[in-house]
Specification:
four-stranded antiparallel sheet; 17% strand; NADH Oxidase; binds flavin mononucleotide; single chain; two-stranded antiparallel ribbon
Length: 219
């Protein structure tokens, strides 16, 4: 899988066609979801053909249109970074299967969503899924120097990691995190603000995929 190409192709999509998700796409998303739940202790749930959370029967709800499928990011409290990391793994698996997405913390109807939240767990947010009316578009981004310490002799894997970080979705496109090279490893810190730990988890997955390094690269 060329993850860099998949990360480049992914943009937030909020307007969806009527078409239900194809069986092969659902199977690919479920396979990644199950692997992520097993590996993380999260309780993420795929909810299909459910129009209530995004009021899909109405022409517009917020900036969303026609969204009937979503991933509910449920899990124990205090797992914000894991929610970002594993949620984005499912987002990229969906993108690879031709399914568009958008992370959604605020603009969905929580009370109407058919999400099962066991006692002691919380629903952090959802990810809208479907076939977009368009593939979305590139947006404004910070530079690599703004999110990471970048000396002239920084290794190529680190530069590629930062390039992939800039492609990561973040709440309100805030891109508030900081990466620094420490020997052969990397320290990553969230900035201050809403959802910055979730954003950091998403960005760390992008860094791993862009750099080709595994999770043991983190200080
Ligand atoms: C944690 C998180 C929460 C988000 N919440 C919302 C939301 O409530 N409503 C919305 O329309 N977009 C939401 N987004 C989507 C961001 O606005 C979008 O990812 C960002 O503008 C970057 O654009 P891109 O995804 O096309 O790269 C959220 C994204 C993240 C990562």
């Amino acid at each position: 899988m060329d993850w860099m190409e998949i990360m480049k192709a992914r943009h937030s999509v909020r307007r969806f066609t009527e078409a239900p998700l194809r069986e092969d796409a659902v199977a690919a998303i479920r396979a990644e979801l199950d692997a992520c739940n097993r590996g993380s202790g999260l309780n993420m749930q795929l909810i299909l053909e459910e129009p209530e959370a995004f009021q899909a029967e109405k022409p517009h709800y917020g900036s969303f249109e026609g969204c009937k499928n979503y991933l509910a990011l449920v899990g124990p409290k205090g797992r914000d970074e894991a929610v970002g990391y594993y949620g984005e793994r499912v987002v990229l698996a969906a993108q690879a299967a031709g399914v568009n997405s958008c992370w959604v913390a605020l603009t969905y109807k929580k009370g109407k969503a058919k999400i099962h939240v066991p006692t002691g767990e919380v629903c952090y947010m959802v990810i809208a899924l479907g076939y977009g009316k368009s593939q979305g578009s590139a947006r404004k981004t910070k530079t690599a120097e703004q999110v990471g310490d970048l000396s002239p002799n920084a290794p190529n894997w680190y530069r590629r990691g930062l390039e992939a970080v800039l492609l990561a979705p973040t709440a309100m496109n805030q891109q508030r995190f900081r990466f620094a090279l420490e020997g052969d490893r990397v320290r990553a810190k969230p900035g201050w603000g809403f959802y910055t730990k979730v954003d950091l988890g998403i960005a760390k997955l992008h860094f791993e995929l862009g750099s080709g390094r595994s999770a043991d690269l983190w200080v």
